[in-house]
Design goal:
- The strands form 2 sheets. An 8-stranded antiparallel β-barrel has the order 1-2-3-4-5-8-9-11. Strands 7-10 form a two-stranded antiparallel sheet.
- It has one domain: Porin, CATH 2.40.160.20.
- The chain contains 2 helices and 11 strands; from the N terminus they run H-E-E-E-E-E-E-H-E-E-E-E-E.
- The chain is about 10% helix and about 60% strand.
- Strand 8 and strand 9 form a beta hairpin.
- The longest helix is centred in the first third of the chain and has 14 residues.
- The chain is mainly beta.
Length: about 230
Amino acid sequence: MKRLGLPLAAAIFLAAQPVHAQALSFGVRGGLNYATAGIKSDPSIDIGNRTGFHAGVVGYVDIAKNFALQTEMMYSQKGFAKGGSNVALKVNYFEIPVYAVVKLPTKISPHLYAGFVLGLETGCKASTANFTDVDCDSAFAQNNQTPRTKGADSGVMIGGGVTFQFGPGDILVDAIYNYGLTNIAESGSDISELKSRTFYLSAAYLLPVGGRSSPGPSSPSMPPGAREPYR
């Protein structure tokens, strides 16, 4: 997790600098989560998918014509359903992803994401054959077959989508995959390793700071009154 601090600090610092007329945008994001986990257990168990949601805010800064940085702060529901087993886990996080964005600046602009995410746990509920939606610490005390989580998660995120202009801002429609790197199972007699796997189907709306009237370095010169295409 410490290794995530430097790219996060760098992204925030760059986003705050108005040098070279960098175009800043801020907005909101929300959508659906389809979550499960990579799991090692004894005996082997078959888990299912948990359907949840995510919601938060987005900051975006253009670096070059085809490159940008994006960071977010959002609430995200993860975990897994029982599937063919007796154990289910609902773990919710405050997540901070930082992306590099490669884009094609056209009217309808495709883009690709790659980055890291740090998640801080905000709540955890476990279910077994004997109880439903019990706090994870209490569930572990009652039945140590359920995992006690560590309180934080980290992972890599990759994905893509398209951006198009709508009113004064831009709509982003994205599909993003979060591959967890942290073993979030601190202890548990049956589950020895638990790493999150989450697919996000998401939309965001971004508003440029100062509007589109002054093209930045990634935009060609425009006649008065013309609207700048997506950066």
